[in-house]
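Dear Dr. H.,

I hope your travels went smoothly. While you were away I took the liberty of generating a structure for the chain from your last submission, since the lab meeting agenda had it listed for discussion. I wanted you to have the full record in hand beforehand rather than looking at slides cold. The sequence, exactly as received, is reproduced here:
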Amino acid sequence: MVIAGLSGGGWLMFALISDPAVVVAQEGIGRLPFDPTFQHKVGELLVAVPLFLAALFSSIRPKGSIAHNLLLSWPVTIVGGALNAMAWMGTADTAPWNEPNRLWFMLLAVIGLVGPTAIMALVNREKSRT
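The corresponding predicted structure, in token form, is as follows:
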């Protein structure tokens, strides 16, 4: 899990640096916040990091602590989900709705909006069983 997270994080950081550099070089820095790829990369980071950390520490931290951390990170994942929804809408004129990147944008938007709440419910349900 750690290797997958670190390799995915490394790939994400590389893309987070290289993709905006292309946008800035071609269209200027003023276009960067409105670029769907940049919105997606930042949103992906905001969704993935809290959920990855919750999964990583799930075996060594008490369940209540994980649920509390997810509760605290929920605003971050909501912003990440909203950025992915904006990226999905921003690519509507260039790609069909069923294009794989657009589906990934929408999946991350849904995970960002409801993922922490669903995981907290599962953790609390399992905590009440034990």
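Two observations you may find useful: The chain is about 80% helix and 0% strand. The longest helix spans residues 100-129.

With kind regards,
E. W.
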